[in-house]
Write a structure and sequence with these properties.
The protein is of the alpha/beta class. The protein is about 45% helix and about 20% strand. The strands form 4 sheets. Strands 3-2-1-4-5-6-11 form a 7-stranded parallel β-sheet, sandwiched between helices. The chain has a two-stranded parallel sheet with strand order 7-10. Helix 5 (about 95-115) packs parallel to helix 6. Bound molecules: nicotinamide-adenine-dinucleotide and uridine-5'-diphosphate-4-deoxy-4-fluoro-alpha-D-galactose (UFG). Nicotinamide-adenine-dinucleotide binds near residues 11, 59 and 122.
């Protein structure tokens, strides 16, 4: 069985390629390298000891995608490719709608043309409206607060409609907060410029690349006043994709799943764990709340456990240690 992995040179895609190869799948990777580089592809080959075809192609190039579908007997797709920065999506919304929606639409047309019926899609907890009560369940009210979130919301709807029309099988995976790196230290998250997300900012501060972490808000209605999120180790998340392929191939219809640990962790808890596990200080200061942030949300992961047989295995300590190992080895 060959899996087409779009965005497979990216952070979550590269870790998923490792787990797919370990599970015995063949893979074909497509990525335009807009937010990644060949080091991740080479890293996957090094970890797995296996080779696979890689195409540097923009998914909006219909002819190039057509050639890839014609050349390989694709049984299932995992569609990671897309832009993902919330702030950037507010600044350049048309580019976000163009890239994320047209990549998905092109994929649906190619699936229909080449008779591919199975797809696993990278969605996000950002498709839940912020006023749902925690923990968030898959039936919670959907909505979005920014253009990035709307692209995920719309892609989910496009897939729901195509599944209904074509009799396909689609699994929509709503990730909570992916962090960590492969335990080998060979692949991990390598954001360009100043990181927006907490864990890479902590790692760069510990390394001395950033002077101080700003903790956005210490007056939320949470145990220590700082923001609470559901962090999931990227290797657990990758394994969740392998289990989703099994499910996708055995079912038809469109099903959404939360992928999270179900545990809320505060910013301060994460900072303290990182310091303790890695024996390194992370200087920080409290700063005003970040616009658009929520105080606390986390997943109800029980549907994924029940239907996919998926539950996270890795601890907060693993997330911190693996992030630091990658930071130490790869970013000067
Ligand atoms: P990433 O940026 O590391 O990976 C995405 C990859 O897609 C990149 O390698 C990029 O070059 C590629 N890409 C983008 N547009 C493309 C196009 N038109 N054609 C070909 N390749 C293209 O991001 P990630 O963190 O690995 O996220 C993967 C997916 O998961 C994304 O769809 C993202 O929205 C979603 N997601 C991520 C998070 C997170 O916190 N990391 C949370 C929820 C959902
Ligand atoms: N935070 C800080 N300082 C920082 C960065 C973040 O205190 O420098 C705090 C935030 O205020 C929040 C927590 O750390 O309380 C996590 O923030 P992230 O930016 O790491 O993650 P978010 O939960 O804001 O957003 C993530 C993804 C989005 C996705 C969203 C929904 O980055 O793409 O989850 O699941 F839309």
């Amino acid at each position: 069985m060959t899996i087409l992995v779009t965005g497979g040179a990216g952070y979550i895609g590269s870790h998923t390629c490792v787990e797919l190869l370990a599970a015995g799948y063949d893979i074909v990777v497509v990525d335009n390298l807009r937010n990644s580089d060949m080091a991740a592809v080479e890293g996957v080959k090094k970890i797995s000891g296996k080779n696979f075809p890689f195409y540097q192609v923009d998914m909006r190039d219909a002819d190039a995608m057509d050639d890839i579908f014609a050349k390989h007997n694709i049984g299932c797709i995992i569609h990671f490719a897309g832009h993902k920065a919330v702030g950037e999506s507010v600044a350049i919304p048309a580019e976000y709608y163009d890239n994320n929606i047209n990549a998905t639409l092109g994929l649906c047309k190619a699936m229909k043309k080449h008779g591919v019926k199975n797809i696993v899609f990278s969605s996000s907890a950002t498709v839940y409206r912020s006023d749902n009560t925690v923990p968030w369940v898959e039936e919670a009210v959907l909505g979005a607060a920014n253009p990035y979130g709307w692209t995920k919301f719309m892609c989910e709807q496009i897939l729901r409609d195509c599944v209904a029309a074509e009799g396909w099988s689609a699994v929509l995976l709503r990730y909570f907060n992916p962090v960590g790196a492969h335990p080998s230290g060979i692949i991990g998250e390598n954001p360009q410029g100043i990181p927006n997300n907490l864990m890479p900012f902590i790692a760069q501060t510990a390394k001395g690349i950033r002077e101080k972490l700003q903790i956005f808000g210490n007056d939320y209605d949470t145990p220590d006043g700082t923001g609470v999120r559901d962090y999931i180790h990227v290797v657990d998340l990758a394994i969740g994709h392998v289990k989703s392929i099994d499910y996708c191939l055995k079912h038809s219809g469109c099903e959404a799943f939360n992928l999270g640990s179900g545990q809320g962790i505060s910013v301060l808890e994460l900072v303290k764990t990182f310091e303790a596990e890695n024996n390194v200080p992370v200087p920080y200061e409290f700063a005003p709340r970040r616009a658009g942030d929520l105080g606390a949300y986390y997943a109800d992961p029980s549907k994924a456990k029940r239907l996919l047989g998926f539950a996270t295995q890795k601890s907060l300590a693993d997330m911190c240690k693996d992030t630091w190992r990658y930071q130490e080895g790869n970013n000067g």
